[in-house]
Amino acid sequence: MNKKEFNNVTPAKVISFINMKGGVGKTTLTVNLAYEITEYSNLRVLVIDIDPQFNTTQSLLNHFSKLDIYEELQLKSDTIVKVFEKSNKKKATLSKGEPDNESTLPIQNLNSQLSIIPGDLYLTNEIDSTRADRLRPFLEKNDLLNDFDLVFIDCPPTWSLYSQAALKASDYFVIPSKLDEFSLYGIKILLEKVEDVIDSNKKLSCLGAIYTMISENKAASGINRKQTENKEKIESFFENEAIEEFNIHVKPFRSILTFHNRLSYESVFYELQREKKEAVCQEMQDLRDEFLSKLKIMIKRKKEVDIDGDKNLQLI
């Protein structure tokens, strides 16, 4: 397949995938979207796993037959902890390992277009607030925003200084969300926190919400009646309270991701399910196309905002 040629995005756009509620398919979304974009186009993607559960790291390393090197990476602190580690200490405080070489970047190239800064279970050790500002300077100092077109950050499902670090480093954030009765609570808490971060990162805006783990059904809309009711509540919140209380504009993606229970036990990668369930791959491809289209619109609008000096940016 000939890959679609895009103009390189310089500097790279940094996008956090975040929700204050676990079990929403955040890792599955991050992994598959990064993989799909690099398989479909010439764009280069760096994935940063800042979630202490490091499921994104395990999924990607396993898929590219590199999982066996992880223990060595952790022992050398060649993981995300290197970004936040105190440089004036001989012994690591966030990881069980010893820093191998501070000048070595903790990046694993999975192929010519897709790379990862691996996560680390030892990221459960908290950092002080001064180190929460290190991620963006790390990307800039090491020229990673010129080496890649997109940077995806898989965030923790709870609020911490790591979540704050991710949003402070980001241009956009995406909200993966289930359509259950508790989803709205996680979204509300998230926007409360984002509102505080925007004070120190004025460029941060929402690329949209993506509905995940939709129950299999035969409805014309692709969403059953109960989940449709929850969807209407969430979107009413986006159209009213999110703007009035937090001044944050959130537009849901049209594309949705259906949850297929039997397939979920086999692989997190949708591409591997093509023979068994073509519709699974098609959903991810539709989402990929919509994601790139929205991102293109947002980049264009932000450039216009910079020129016009208008700070009231909205997503169409």
**Distance linking N and C termini:** 31 Å
What fraction, in percent, of the residue positions are helical? 25-40%
Largest sheet: 7 strands, mixed
Name the CATH class.
Alpha Beta
- Which stretches are low in confidence, meaning pLDDT under 50 for 5 or more residues running? 88-93, 307-316
Structural class: alpha/beta
Which value, in Å, is the CA radius of gyration? 19 Å
Global shape:
globular
Summarize this structure briefly:
The protein has 316 residues and is α/β, with parallel strands linked by helices. It contains twelve helices and seven strands.
Account of the protein in words:
By secondary structure, the protein is an alpha/beta fold. The protein has a single domain, classed as 3-Layer(aba) Sandwich (Rossmann fold). The chain contains 12 helices and 7 strands. It has a 7-stranded mixed sheet with strand order 3-4-2-5-1-6-7, sandwiched between helices. Helix 8 links the parallel strand 6 (172-177) and strand 7. Helix 1 (26-40) runs parallel beside helix 2 (55-63) and helix 1 packs across helix 12 (278-308). It starts with 12 loop residues before the first strand and ends in an 8-residue tail after the last helix. The model is unreliable at 88-93 and 307-316 (pLDDT under 50).
